[in-house]
Amino acid sequence: MRFMAENLGARRGEELLFRDISFSLSDGEALLVTGPNGSGKSTLLRVVAGLLYAETGSVAAEGYERAAEACHYLGHRNAMKRELTVEENLDFWRDFMGGGEGAVSATEAAEAVGLGGITHLPFGYLSAGQQRRMAMAKLLVVQRPVWLLDEPTAALDAASDAMFGKLCQDFQARGGIIVAATHQPLGLKAPQSLVMKGFEYVD
Questions:
Q1: 28: closest CA among 130, 151, 142, 169?
Q2: d(CA 150, CA 139)
Q3: 0.85 exceeded by pTM
Q4: Residue spans per domain, the chain
């Protein structure tokens, strides 16, 4: 498939954060988005995910009426209920987003992030690092062709970085498309580069 953005622009309040952002990705390709704090990296991903309106431009995914339906977004927050068990949280996301061919069970996803055997625990019982890794497991219980990743490994240890890098490599090898806002390489294979320069884009 092709996943494309054309002439995207977005505002934060009254200020234009960026404009004229375009990219085109095909199966197995990745885009690494970098730039200083406040330059619009997170906003760009949220616009692409359909969580924020674009001031200008458009996003399209071949075979989908709405590009957002092709995407799985992993943001700064884990988006998991502390009172529910890990398994209940992952089952919720699979049911809510439709699972899809190639999706795995909560148990298999937990094992893939190196935390098998604790899916019966309430999410709130886990350490901050374990919670982040379980949030990564959401990417596996729902099969979408595009991953949108916003600093997915921030504050995690080297072992967690390597684990998530392997997940990204495997996803690309299966034809998955990744757009990642991060200063960590994530093990991405031959990524395109987009450097956000913040207010250089403002009138």
A1: 169
A2: 13
A3: yes
A4: 2-201
- Rounded alpha-carbon distances, angstroms, from residue 171 to 13, 44, 67, 138, 164: 36, 22, 19, 14, 11
CA–CA separation, 8 vs 197, rounded Å? 14
In the chain, the amino acid numbered 194 is L
pLDDT of residue 6: 96
The mean per-residue pLDDT over the stretch 131-149 comes to 94
Task: Give, rounded to a whole angstrom, the gap between the first and last alpha carbons of the chain.
Answer: 34
**What is the reported pLDDT for 98?**
83
Q: CA-CA distance, 192 to 176, in Å (whole number)?
A: 14
User: Which CATH code is given to the segment(s) 2-201?
Assistant: 3.40.50.300
Cα–Cα nearest to 137, from 115, 158, 120: 115
CA separation for the pair 113, 166 (Å, rounded): 10
What dihedral angle (degrees, nearest 10) is formed by the CA atoms of 151, 105, 96, 58?
Answer: 40
